Structure formats: C-alpha cells, structure tokens
Amino acid sequence: MGLDLRGLKKTLGGRVIIDELDLRVTNGEMVSLLGPSGCGKTTTLRMIAGFLEVDAGQILLAGRDVTNLGPDKRPSAMVFQNYALWPHMSAAKNVGYPLKIKGLSKVQINEKVEAALELVKLIHHKNSRPGQISGGEQQRVALARALVQEPDILLLDEPLSNLDAKLREKVREDIRELQRRLGITTVIVTHDQEEALSISDRVAVMSAGKIEQFSSPRDLYLRPATEYVANFIGSINRFEGELQDGEIAPGSGVTGIRPEDLLISMSPVEGSQPGVVELVIPRGHFFEVVVIRRDGKFRIFTSENIPVAGDNVHVKIKRALRYRNGKLIE
Amino acid sequence: MISVGRKKSREGSRSNIVARSSLLGLALSLPPLLLVFIFVGIPICIGLTFSLGFTHGPNRVISLIGQQIHVKNHWWGTLAAYSDVVHDSRFLGDLGLTLFVTVLSTVLVIVMALAISIYQRLIGGKQASVLVTLSIVPLFVPVVISAWAIHTFYGGDGFMRSLFSQFGINFPTLTSTPAAIVIGSVWTALPFSILMISSGMQAIPDALVEAARDCGAPSSKIIVNILLPLAKTPIIIAMSFTAIGILGSFTIPLFLGPNQPTMLGVEISNFFSSYNRPQQSLVMAFIVFLAASSIAILYVWSNVKSARESGRI
Amino acid sequence: MNKLLNPARLALNAAVILMIFFILGPIVWLAVHAFTSNWQYPDLYPSGFTLHWWSQVFLDSALASAMKNSLITSPIVVLCSMIVCLPAAYAVGRIKFWGRRAFMIGIFSANSFPKIGLFAAIATLYYSLNLMGTFLGVIIIQLLGTIIYMTWIPAAAFAGVPRNLEEAARDAGASKFTVFRTITLRMALPGILVAIVMSFLAAFDEAQGTYLVGAPTIFTMPTEMYSLVQNYPIQVAAVFSILLALPSVLLLGLARKHIMGGQLADGFQLK
C-alpha cells in the first residue's frame, strides 16, 4: 500500500475542513485529488506531507505510520505550486540540498544531482539561478529536487496551473512518462479536470472535505457514483424525473444523460422523440447541438448528421443515469 | 508607408519624454539637494579646510575665537592639527573606547534582533509578538530621556542597586562606565534593527521554509542555509545604520559614560565648546566620518550587489 | 511538530521577563519618580506620592520657555521639510531621472556623517553667517535631520502606487492633477504620514545640534534636559521627561500600524 489515509479529520478556524476521509492508493499508482477551491484537497495534501497536523486519523506511507512525524522525517517529497526554489542557490545546489542535509559526500551529491537533472532534461542549467530560467524549467528543477530524495511518495501541488496551455500538455505527458518509468506512488492536487483525467490511474473527486468517488477516469465518466460527480465531470443533461418510454416523465429522483449518449437523426428511429434544433455550436472536431423536445432541452455531442437551427429532428436516449438522494442507482 | 512614418515619430517623442522627465526629476530634487549641499556639503568642505589650517574667509571668525589653531604652511594646508590629535593620548583612548563600544553594541543588537526575528519567523506565537513589540518601545522615547532613564536605572541609587541590595548583594554602579554606554546604545539601537530584520525575515515566503523541511532540514540548517542568506540585505542595513549611529553618538555616552576616556562624539563637543579647540574638534570629526563612510560604503555595495544578483539592475 | 521542550520553554519565559526589565525598566522607574514626593535609596518604594512637581515644572519660566520653543520650532520645521522634500520624493519615486540613485545615496551619506562632528562644522559656518544662537539657525539644524525621512519614505510610498490605477483614472477622464490629488497622493498618504511623524520627532527630539548652536540663548525641551538633570531634583527631570516623551508616544502610537506594517523598513531599501 503506497498511501493509506484512515479516518482523517481536520478543523481549521472553527470550520470542519476534512471529515472522516479514507483513501487507499496502491504502490506505484498515480492519483489525483480533484475538486473546486475549498473542497479540502490542498489541506489533505499538506497533511500527507506533514505540514498540517491531523486532528484525528492515521496516515501510512509505504506501510509506515507517519501521523506523528514532521515533514522533515517523512519519506515524502513535495513539488510546491510556485516551485519554492531558493533564489540564492543554483539549480544544482537546490537539487543537492536534501542530500547535503543527509550528509552525503560532495562526490556523491554531485553524481545524484546530475542524474536527477538529466532525468528532467535540465543538466545544461546546472549552475543557473532560479531567476534566470523560465517557469517550466523552474518546475523541472523542483521536480528533480523531489526525485533526488528517492521518496516513497511524490506529492504535486497544482503542477500545471502556472503554465500556459501549450506547455501544460507537454509537461503533463512528461510527468506521466517519468512517473511510469520510476514507479513512484504519486498524489496530485488539481482543480483542472482535464489534467486529472488525462494522466491519473485513479481520481478522487472531492467536495466539502469528503471524497465523492475514487475511481479510474473512465469509471468516473461512465458511472459517476453521485450526482455531484456526474455534474462535475464532463457535461450532463440533468432532469428531475424518470425515464419512461424514451422520454423524461415526472417522478422521484434525478436522471442524467451524457451528451454522447443521445442520438440525433433527421427521421424517426425506434424510441426517439421529435424536437426542434435551437442552436448548433461548433466545438472543433465535434458539434454541440441544442434540441428542444416536449420533455425538455437536450445538449447533444455529435460529429455527423449536423442539422441547422430550426430543423425538425428526432432524438433518442441511448443511455441514462438515474439518481436517488444524490446516489447512482441501477 | 504612412504607418512606418508614424511609428518613427512615436519613438522619437518617447525619447523626448524621457529627456524632459529627467530634467523635471532633477529640478524637483533640487531643493533638498541644495539644502544639503549648503548646510552639510559646504560646512564639511570648509570644516575640512579648517582642519587643514585654512583660517581665512568663512573660517576667520572661528580661527579668532579658538585656541591652538594651526595655520597652513603649504598650499594644501598643514597636517599639524591632525598630528596634534593623533598623538593625543586622550584621543587615542577615546578612539579605542569608541571602536570597542561600537563593535560590541552592534554585535549585541544584531544578535538580539536576529534571535527575536528568527524565533518569530520559525515558531511565532504570543511570546514572539511580545518580544518584538518590546524591542520597538525605545523608538517611542526621545534619546535624551532614554539616556537619563537608563542613568537613573543603573546608577548609584538606581533600581538595579536597590533591587540587589534587598538581597544583600552589592550590584556595581554602572553609570560612568563603558558598560552603561553599551547598555544605552543597545537599548536605543534595538528598534530599528528589529524592524529591519524582522520584516526581512517575515518577507521570506513560507513555501521556501516548508520546502527545506520537506527536504529533511532541521531548524538549525534552515536558519543558516535559508533564512540568513535571504535576509542578508536587511541584516546588513541594520548593521550599518546601527554602527554608524553608535560611532558618532553623543547623548548616550554623555549621560552614561565616564569622563575619560569617553566616546568621540562627546570629545568632539568638548573640544569645540569647553576646551575651545575647534580645529582639533573638526579633525576628530573627520576621523569619525572616515570610519562611518567605510561602513556606509559597505551598505551601498551590499545593496547594489543584491540588486544585481536578483536581476534588478 | 515545533513544540518546545520544557527547558526551552523555561528559557524563553526567562528571556521575556529579562526583556521586560531591560526595555521597560528604566522608563517605568523614571516615570514613577514624576509622581513621588520622596524616595530614599535603597527602597524599592517611594515614601509618598504627589503631583506638586508638575506644577513646579509648568510654573518654572526657564522650563516653560523651553517647552514653548519646542512647540514652535518643530511644526515649522516639519512644514518646511514637506515643502522642500516632498517634490523631490515624488520625483525619485516616479521619474526615472538620471542621477536618481546618486541623489538618494547622497542624501543617505549626508545623514551618516556623525552628527556631532557635522554640527561642529556647521557651527563654524554659523559663526561667519551670524546664525549662532538664532531661531533660524536652530530651524535649519533640525530641518537637516528630517530630510532623510521626508525623502526616502515618501519616495517609496510614491513608487508603490500602482500605475494601472492612475491609468484607469485617466482613461475615465480625470485630468493629470486630479489623478495626482485623488489617486497618487491618497495612496501614498500612509507613507507620507509616517514621514511626517518621523520628521516631527526628529525635529522635536533633536538635541545635539540644537545644543551646539542654540545654547545658551535658545533652549528647546531636549537641550534643556542636558542642564536640567544637573540642576533640578530627579522628580523634575522625570516630569519633564514625560512631557518630552508625550508627543513621541502619541504620534508613534497613532502611526504604529504603518511603521510595524513595514512602511519604515520598506522606505530604506534602495530600489
């Protein structure tokens, strides 16, 4: 077990931030804590790192109970959101610092520092100061500094939020590739869905100090366990009521339909209902078509049979998710 | 083609604006500059000439009033007054005391300011705030009063002796000793150093300290490797200001120090007024100025160096 | 995580107590004397309390005249300082003119010349200019001490006003002067107030130079202290000290938020 959080509780300033949080991450797994600001994901990360004391519960890293250890004694290494590189030290000195603390010899430090910088492809900036390199490069130095400690768990705090869009994609892939190669248990905190879903083995969707669902990105999308997750991940057409004979009828509970689970055609097909196209929005490689049926407004993602506004079309519901009291029912 | 022409004139007018603002800037800075030039620059230059034996013009009146005036015997003046002073055993004693008190007091002030600031930075809490607030209190008290208050506190019938005599201990009378000068100097210099150093420490982002902890560093290493280097500039500012201030101080050693040897600030005043030897007084002033300048140069150099390192200039 | 062990905690509490004695002791000891009738050594307690020393001070002509002099010269000095220095502070903070850094360093170095030596040199000049023992002479001396505060601190304050706020105001139609008045000046006001407070105190508490050029004609409250402590009983000195310290305590108390908030420390960074 790479990381085991048991019954974590944290109150700050009178408010309960984290309440009975459990999380089990397997060794070598890369997981994300995903959620809006205030959901408690950063608090959780800081508790794992040791910067915040838990009010109740246990934290086990690589099977060891570290709940009462300070951050300097835990086998975790963190890459901070703003990288936290020491401005008065070169990249090599930054990366070598944890080794210096351990008491390694100059030769050993040099070896390991160079290996770490090679890993993040920054060996050419070995003697540069943080002020002299770009944001993306600073992040790689911070990453090297974390990796050089050979930690049991790697913690990344919003790693992509300070990078511009083009760079983000590249860095995402780099992080994923590096993690796969080294096999270090990794926890990422992010508010960006795309980031979490694209590189994680599993994602913990958090809200108000609790984990709503902890599954693979695919499961989160196809089988969101709660209404919150269904709304948070991707888009969804949400209706109060139940699905009956191909249309939404009044009833208890909530029905959610993913935009790709709706079929649009010019002529009726089995189970379809008629409707009028209100709006067609081009979205790059697919189109978002808004159709008004007698049971409500539907947003549909499709890349063929694109109608125009005003057309009479037929829409079929292929698959629906049903929720009662916020939870998914079969 | 038109757009190229327009762009050119825009660039031209920009350099015009820069030139005009430079002139404006210089013009606005003129008043204080003039004031300083007339009432600091000129007196210093004239004082320098007087110390070198130029006794005419603006130095005429003082030369008539003062005693033991050496008149110049070369085109550049004379070193007789300087020779007087440097060979005066009184001066040498004063110089030794002044340097000793300055160094000791500065060290004590900086150590105290560092201790309190680092404690506040790494641990914080109520006691840290109390210590910082206490350290700033002397700022609120005029120097003359501080000197007198410290005199009554450590004096022959002061608090310290009263307190210890309750236990039958004969606490020494500290007034009129170098120790009292050090106490008074530290007392008055503490606020500025605390303000400088504690604000420098607080300005270090939490993440930098946390990152060091994450790397396994204990507090001692964090202080040496992270806090002190990053607060280097405010520390040097505090050291320079403190040392310069104590070097030329007058009121504190006047109230608290011995008559002989005393600090050079007091001696300068003595020679000017009481002993009526203004020329020697100015010689001493310039010697002190030399020492103060070298400290000031250190401050400016450190500022420029750190600005260059962080890429500001 | 950062819990202190018991011996460390003990040492810390001892340090706090020592600091209290070291810092507050002398002031409190002196202040109490202002209200005592008789206090024999080595008692830790006076024989009695009285207010009669206060009336003594106010009725003494020499002391009253010193107080009057202080209260006249200090505000005049601050006003002159503002007129002379604030435009320069604005220029240094906002206009990147050639020689700006040299100007600031020049002002700073002028302040690092040991004051008493400087005053000796100035006194030499004063003799020829007939300024010894005059009000003008005293005002100039006190003015010199305020320059560093009235240039450096407002300069940092002016420099700290975000340009985009001014640009937004211009964009909304305000004239340059209106922008200066309503935006720039208002945002730099805390720094300017700190400078005014520090300058007032520098002028009010100025003793060395005033002593050298003012005595024996003009005495202000600080210079009066030099002779007072030798010629009057300690209680009178105590009363006078409290009076002299009052403006300090009041003004700095009011400006405390800004001083501790870093305006003072920020002002002395060379940017």
Q: Characterize the largest beta sheet of chain B: strand count, sense, and whether it forms a barrel.
A: none
Counting DSSP E segments of at least 2 residues, the number of strands of chain B comes to 0
Uncertain parts of chain B = 1-11
Average pLDDT across residues of chain A? 92
Q: N- to C-terminal separation of chain B?
A: 38 Å
Structural class of chain B: mainly alpha
Spatial strand sequence of the major β-sheet of chain A: 6-7-8-3-9-10
Q: What is the rounded distance between the termini of chain A? A: 31 Å
Largest interface comes to: B-C, 108 and 92 residues
Radius of gyration of chain B: 26 Å
CATH class of the largest domain in chain A: Alpha Beta
Q: What is the H-and-E element order of chain A? A: EEEHEEEHHHEHEHEEHHEEEEEEEEE
> Helicity of chain B, in percent?
over 70%
CATH architecture of the largest domain in chain A: 3-Layer(aba) Sandwich
Structural class of chain A: alpha+beta
Described by the principal axes of the CA atoms, the overall outline of chain B is flat
Count of individual domains of chain A: 2
Task: Explain this structure.
Chain A has 330 residues and is an alpha+beta fold. Chain A has two domains: 223 residues, P-loop containing nucleotide triphosphate hydrolases (Rossmann fold); 95 residues, OB fold (Dihydrolipoamide Acetyltransferase, E2P). Helix content of chain A is 26%, strand content 37%. In chain A, the strands form four sheets. A six-stranded mixed sheet of chain A has the order 6-7-8-3-9-10, with helices on both faces. In chain A, strands 13-17-14-15-16 form a five-stranded antiparallel sheet, with no helix packed on it. Chain A has a four-stranded antiparallel sheet with strand order 2-1-4-5, with helices on one face. In chain A, α5 links the parallel β7 and β8. In chain A, α2 crosses α3. Chain A is elongated, with a radius of gyration of 24 Å. Chain B folds into two domains: 64 residues, no CATH class; 222 residues, MetI-like fold (Orthogonal Bundle). Helices cover 76% and strands 0% of the residues of chain B. The relative contact order of chain B is 0.11. Chain C is mostly helical. A two-stranded antiparallel sheet of chain C has the order 1-2. Chains in contact: A-B, B-C. Chains B and C meet through α1, α2, α5, α6 and α7 of B and α1, α3, α4, α5 and α6 of C.
